[in-house]
Amino acid sequence: MDNNEKIKDPLVSIIIPAYNCENTIGKCLDSLLKLDYPDYEIIIIDDGSTDSTPEILKQSPKVKTIRTQNSGPSRARNIGIKEAKGDFIAFTDADCIVDRNWIKELFRGFVSDKVAGVGGDQQSPEDETPFGKDVQDFMKFVGIVGDYMKHHMDILKTSHNPTCNVLYKKTVLLEAGLFDEALWPGEDVDIDRKIKRKGWLLYYNPNAVVQHYRPQNPGSFNKMMKRYGWAQGYLVRKYGLFRLIQMEPLFILFLFAVFVLWISLIPETIALVCFLYFLIPFVIFLFKTRSMKKAFSYYRFTIFLLWFWNIGFIKSLAGMKR
């Protein structure tokens, strides 16, 4: 081969599960169709949408749409993988807008033959609501606990990349047995664990960016936290404790035990203990952010997160449905 001949870029199959996402799917598709990458296909799995999502998808003839009965994102992704023609599979969500250089930047993370997948950063869209931006800021702030969002500025090795922003070798996904269709969310944590146990590496590139719309009100945020908690309980039942975030309920139980012991031994300190118990997180947020407004916002989200996440976690450990 002529040394000056350009090596052909591999075909990438971009797979997006879609369910009742009429407010965002158009923006998602527009961004995908503007990607600066020469060879890719877009596969949308319409997972039984009952809103105008199917009609919006019909307006994009360049997109392959597969209509299924509602059975969840994990099964939808597996269907997409089996239909994909590419040697690489990229995942994002129907409520995400991808950067023009998204695929190119994800490929930059394949620094060796042992790399199975590369993920990237999540940011707020320009037209995101104030509440959604607050959720994004909070999740970015605490994201390091679950490795969901990162603060690094360089390409580096990681243990997990969420499926809203990741590129995998197709052969590795097949080797790992695809996604657990009984699990969502958390199916991306599960697939990454299976991939790593086979000796593969995962990397992260902060320059591979998607803009991700977040819950638009407290009720939606609380439901999301409950789903996250349930997923972690499922993973604990499947693998045992293996993530820092899964230790959180044990930490809360330890604090509660200390609290009960303290007030039983020194009853007159009840008020002081309660005050400190609830004050300390706020002080930490204030120290870290240097902003009273952000400290109050993060503190509010933390209270809801701990309550609803643990409800979901306990229900899952008990074998209950979400």
Can you tag this structure with a few keywords?
322 residues; alpha/beta; Spore Coat Polysaccharide Biosynthesis Protein SpsA, Chain A; 2 domains; 9-stranded mixed β-sheet; 47% helix; disordered N terminus
Please characterize this protein's 3D structure.
- The protein has helices at residues 25-33, 53-58, 73-83, 102-108, 130-142, 170-176, 187-197, 218-239, 248-265, 270-289, 292-317, and strands at 12-18, 40-47, 64-68, 88-92, 96-98, 115-123, 156-158, 165-169, 201-212.
- Helix 8 packs across helix 11 and helix 10 (270-289) crosses helix 11 (292-317).
- It is globular, with a radius of gyration of 21 Å.
- Helix 2 (53-58) links the parallel strand 2 (40-47) and strand 3.
- Strands 1, 2, 3, 4, 5, 6, 7, 8 and 9 form a nine-stranded mixed beta sheet that branches.
- 36% of the residues are buried.
- It has two domains: 12-216, Spore Coat Polysaccharide Biosynthesis Protein SpsA, Chain A, CATH 3.90.550.10; 236-317, no CATH class.
- It contains eleven helices and nine strands.
- The longest helix is centred in the C-terminal third of the chain and has 26 residues, at 292-317.
- The chain has 322 residues and is α/β, with parallel strands linked by helices.
